[in-house]
Amino acid sequence: MIERLRGQVVFRDHASITLDVHGVGYLIQCANPFVYDINEDKETLIYTYQHVREDAIHLYGFSTREERELFSRLLQVSGIGPKGGLAILAEGNAAIVVQAIEEEDETLLVKFPGIGKKTARQMILDLKGKFAGTAWQNVEATQTATTPIPTQAQGTLDEAMEALRSLGYGEKEIKKCRKALQHEELEADEYVRRSLRLLVER
To answer: Is residue 85 part of a domain?
Structure first.
């Protein structure tokens, strides 16, 4: 099990980053890759989850151990795979997900892509009460501010919409987000966060 990696982010697309660790490039799937700046002079610490299947081994990356723990627990729920787990975490405030589970808020949970009423109920049945005594016990469900990432990339809104597509959102939802944010000048990570916030609020 690879618990964490520290290195330079040398490549990023809408679904993953490549982290260079002493000359070895690790491909890491992330909920929102745009929160990581491409900077070969700066080291980035990423907590990882190694998912092993018969035909593949994948690494998933998180900015905190708490996010990784939630991701790991989500995979234990029938009907949720790695892609669904990342989509739930992509909004950037995983504490809200924990709160929704503890408060049995199915209305909020079904707003995530791929989560229907049956899966939301299963999440509550499987995970409610499982966060007591963990790091999540002292994490408040508040919206965290983000620091814009300096970038010279063009078409950041297009990149963000592609990220939503990779998380499982449909063209109708993506179109609504694009329309709501098309006049905003934001970095790609903030486009993703704002879009996901809009989708959850609706």
So the answer is: yes
Give 3-state DSSP helix, strand, coil % of the chain, rounded to 5: 40, 20, 40
Q: What is the DSSP string of 160-197?
A: HHHHHHHTT--HHHHHHHHHHHTT----HHHHHHHHHH
Q: Range of 83's domain?
A: 65-138
**H or E segment and range at residue 67:** helix 65-74
Do residues 60 and 29 touch, judged by C-beta distance below 8 A? yes
Q: pLDDT digit string (tens) for 149-172? A: 333 333 788 888 888 888 888 888
Alpha-carbon distance of 157 to 192, in angstroms, equals 9
Q: Which residues, 6+ apart, have CB-to-CB distance to 41 below 8 Å?
A: 8
Positive or negative CA dihedral for 35, 36, 39, 42? positive
What letter would DSSP give residue 144? P
Residue 119 CA to residue 85 CA, distance in Å, equals 12
Q: At what angle do helices 156-166 and 188-201 cross, to 10 degrees?
A: 50
- Paired with 94 in beta bridges are none
**Tell me: the pLDDT tens digits for 103-132?**
999 998 988 888 899 999 999 999 998 876
Contact by Cβ (8 Å): 108, 65: no
Q: Looking at the structure, do residues 86 and 55 belong to the same domain, yes or no?
A: no
Query: Could you tell me the pTM of the whole model?
Result: 0.69
Q: Are residues 95 and 30 in the same domain?
A: no
